[in-house]
Every structure is written in C-alpha cells, then in structure tokens.
Amino acid sequence: MSNTFNFKRFWNYFTYDLISAKNNTGLSLAIAGAAPVFTYAIYQIFALLFDGKTAYMPSGVKIAAIVIAVFISILYFPTKQYGSLTDKRAGADWLMLPASRLEKWFSLLLITCLVVPAFLFAELFATDKLLSLIFDGTYGASAFSQINRSVGLLWNEFTIEGVGKLAINAPYALYLSFCQNILFFTLGAIYFKKSKIGMTFLSSFVLTIALSMLLIAVGKIFSNFDFNLGPEDISDEAAMRTINIIVYSVYIVVFATLDILLYLRIKSLKH
Amino acid sequence: MIKIDKLSFSYGSVPCLENISLCLEEGKIYGLLGENGVGKTTLLTLLCGLKKPDSGSIETDGDIPYRRNPSFLQDQYYLPEEVAPVNERAGRWARYTGKFWPKYSHEKFLQAMSLFENDPEQKMNAMSAGQLKKTYISFALACNVKHLLLDEPTNGLDIPGKTQFRKVIMSLTAEDSIIVISTHQVKDLENIIDPIVILDKRDVLLNASISTITDKLFFDYGTTLNPESLFSEQLPGGFIQVYPNTKGAESKVSVEALFNTVHAHKKLIKEMFSHE
Predict the structure, then answer these.
(1) Which among A139, A159, A176, B15 has most CB atoms closer than 10 A?
(2) DSSP 8-state secondary structure symbol assigned to residue A96
C-alpha cells in the first residue's frame, strides 16, 4: 500500500473529515444557509412592530443577507473545523491518524472548496427560492434571480473605454474568490495558535498593503517605458483576451500559492 | 523493535533530552519513569513521530517515526495525557475512527468499555475526564497495534478505574506488542510494568527487567535498618530499604523505592546494571 496516496485510505479519511465537519460545523452552516429565512422573519417582525402590517422586503436586504451569511461562513468554518490542529490534544490526534499528508491536504481542499460552498449555496438558493414561492407578495422574486436580472449571473460584461467589452464568467470568478478567501482563513486557522480570525485579518491587511505597494512600484517602472502602441496596434479582442488571461492568472496563482502553503503547513505541524 | 540512538531534543535553546540511547523489544510492557521535566512525554512524542529529533535517530521496525508514513501509523497508537472530547457518541466515533487501523476490533472496544463500565452510547463531550480517558484507552487497545505508547494513562482515573486499567492491559494486549507507559503513578502500575526504564535528562539511568533488578537489588521490608542500604524510608511498622542483593535472595520490587535508589546513586546503579 502506497504511503503517499491510496484511494481506499483517502476515502476513509475523507468520510472521517466529512463526519467531523458535520459534527463541528454542520448546524452552524445550516443556520447560515437559512439566512434568508431569518432575515425575512426579522424584517417582518419589525414591519409589524412599527407599521402594524407586513412589508415588501427590498432586494438589497435579501442580497445583503446572503453576502453576510457567506462572509460569516468563510470566517467561521476554517477556525471551527481545522483550528484545533494547532491544539496539542486534538492536533496530536489528527497527526497520528494513519493517512498521508497528501490525503489529509486533499481532503481539506475538497471540503473547503467543494463541500462547504456546495452545501451553503444550495441551502441559500433553496431557502431564497422557497421564500419567493411562498411569500410572493412580501418577499418577491428570489435574490438570485434579481442578481441575475440586474448584473447577469452567468456572464458579466464590462465596457472598458478605448478597449471594448470584457466578459467575465461571474460565478466562476466568484467561486474562485470564495475558494481563495476560505483557503486563506484555513491557512490562518492552522498557522496561528491564538486569535486566529483576527490575526488572519491583520495578515491579509498587511499583505494587501505590501502587494499594492509592489504593484504601484511595478506600474511606475512600466509607465517610464514608451511602448509606442496606439489603439490601432492592438485589437479589441486581443486586449480583452489579455485582460481575461491576467484576471484568471491572478486567481489561479493565488489559489495555487494558498494550496502549497497549506500543504507545507500540514507537513510541518508538530506537537 | 524500537531503536533509539544518541537522541537529542531541545525546546529552543533549552535542552530536554541529550544523547539518549535505548532499545525497546517486542512482548514487553515498559514503564517509563523519571522526575518532572526529564522529558518522558517528549520522548514518547518523538517515538510516535509528533516531534522531530534535533540529532540522533529513532527507528521503529525500520521506519522513521517523524515521516509519519501511514504504514507506520497503522501499527501504532499514541495516547496523550490529555485527550480531546469529541462531539460524537463513543461507539460511533470508535467505529469510524477505527477504520484507519487495519486490525481494529470493535468487539474489543466494546469489551474494554464494558470492563471499564463505560457507556459507548454516551456522547464523548458529555463524559467526565476519567470516562473520556477510559474511552480512549479502550480505543487504543481495540486498535490491536504493535506499538502502544501511553502517557500517564491512569491520571484522571478513579480507584476502580485504575484496577480496571490493569485488568484491560493484561487481558487485551497482544503478546508481541511493545507497550510503553510513561507514569508518575508507579503504585498503580507496579504489577504490570516490566522492564522499568528510568530516564534522566542526559542519560538512561536504568533499563532492566524486574528479575534483573531483584537479582541485583534486595528490597527489604523489615524493621531493622541495614547499614549497607542505598535507600531507606520509614513506613508504618517498619522500613523499606534497598541494598545490593549479595546473597541472591528473592524480594518484591517497590518501584517507588527503586526510583529513589536510582536517583540517589546514579553512577553506582549504572555500573551495577551496565553488563545487562
């Protein structure tokens, strides 16, 4: 049996990780996924309290409820599920489980980047849709359909002056962004021993400032060059393609870097 | 076989273990003793692969623990002094966690839980510290591993629990396994540990079987003090004394008295047992 990766052992570990995620965070994620229901209930309670009758819930409130639920889940899940790896007792148990580092790492990626978003968004979508079907008069259209109508859920088109239209696959970009954030907080959860969320926020703040300064410096260097390119030298399509490649490359590079850092952290854990 | 060769480990600039060499053989229950802070727990965590040695080596049946290869981990269980409560029923937790150890037996887990009078249907995070410890001990034994490392297993157990612990260890461990028990509660385990390893920061002061110890040392529970005694302590109704067994008489080892003797006469004891 390979010590690096074995499917049967991986499956055992993945189911173990899933059960433990269900026990540790299942209820909290289920509550986050039902955010539209709670928001709707609270909104109507206040409407009854102040106006004496139910009121139509604006789409902004619905969308805000979903965004906040996703944001809280991104902060909460990694610390609750994997934060204990830095704890002597739970961490030692985890390290001593007979599965390879690769299997443990891969399971962590699958759970944070597939299982959690699938469960969370499926529940958010279902509760949102259900409310719109049951309370058509006061809830109105579902938040997801409203987002789709206003900005286009599948393909977002942006017009860039002098270049043309840039089309971004919004769900894909949002999904990659979700993964980046949840992986970043997972890294914080297994890196910092105390104040995991606060320290991760602080590191993200420092990193953002450092990267922005780097980008400004790089931009300044490039602004000194004269490329002698006029609008006629580069086609709209080529410009769009280049921008798209840059956008997705950044996503993929960040995603890959976080994956590598997570693996290295898992490898170096000791108690 | 677990082979430790010139092992050193330090926490930052504070040395913990220095140049330790030791060999642990199959079919024995080792009692790992030592003063506070000599590094018993550290040695166990190095043996199971939770820590990496600074220098020297540990080899467990040809494997290096710190690599934490699944094939190595499958044949080992490390029970830390403090165990983590899990939000799950003990029986269910044991069933799905046991899948990782190929020789895990759920029947054995239930048998050990029953010997401990522990309820497998109880949620682990609702258990008392002692009940939780008993659950983990039951699980450790049910894994049927070759290398079982137990750190202060009787801490937190009540008086019946300590008796039950001796019972499960004697009845549910495989004959070819290596069991290392680190403890301060020597009286709890006096009758089950053999050989005894006494650790010092820079040395292994003693690594000998009970029969070798009684061959070399005599444990006198009499009422008159012997001028040759290496260690003596007054007890109600007499003394416990330890002195060299020059007459080849038989006696029963008092681990506590042995420990104190070794610590009072490190050099002499090392010389005495160096040919073993």
Answers:
(1) A139
(2) T
Structure tokens at B251: 């006696």
Task: Establish if A95 touches chain B: CB-CB under 8 angstroms.
Answer: yes
Show which residues on chain B lie within 8 Å of chain A, measured between beta carbons.
45, 48-52, 68-71, 73-74, 76-78, 80, 82-84, 86-88, 96-97, 99-101
Helix (H, G, I), strand (E, B) or coil at B30: strand
How would you write the pLDDT of chain B (276 residues) with one tens digit per residue?
999 999 999 999 999 999 999 999 999 999 999 999 899 999 999 999 999 999 999 999 999 999 999 999 999 999 999 999 999 999 999 999 999 999 999 999 999 999 999 999 999 999 999 999 999 999 999 999 999 999 999 999 999 999 999 999 999 888 889 999 999 888 888 889 999 999 987 789 999 999 999 999 999 999 988 888 999 999 888 899 999 999 999 999 999 999 999 999 999 998 998 865
Q: Phi first, then psi: what are they for B143, rounded to 5°?
A: -70, -15
Interface test with A, best of B10, B44, B50 (most A CBs within 10 A): B50
CA B32/CA B200 separation, integer angstroms: 11
**Residues A37, A126: Cα–Cα separation, whole Å:** 10
Tell me the C-alpha distance between A216 and B190, whole Å: 71
- B49 with B65: CB under 8 angstroms? yes
pTM: 0.88
Q: Which of A19, A90, A98 has its CB closest to that of B100?
A: A98
Q: Cβ of A23 and B78 within 8 Å? A: no
Tell me if the bond preceding B236 is cis, omega within 30° of 0: no
Residue A180 CA to residue A177 CA, distance in Å, equals 5
What are the residue ranges of helices labelled H in A140-235?
143-151, 170-191, 196-223
The interface pTM score, or ipTM, of the predicted complex is 0.89
Two structure tokens written together for B216: 């070399």
Residue of A nearest to B71 (CA): A3
B86: closest CA of chain A, how far (Å): 9
Say whether residue A28 is in contact with chain B using an 8 A CB cutoff.
no
Tokens of A135: 């309370």
Distance, CA of B132 to CA of B123 (rounded, Å): 10
Task: Name the residue ranges covered by the structural domains of chain A.
Answer: 7-193+226-268
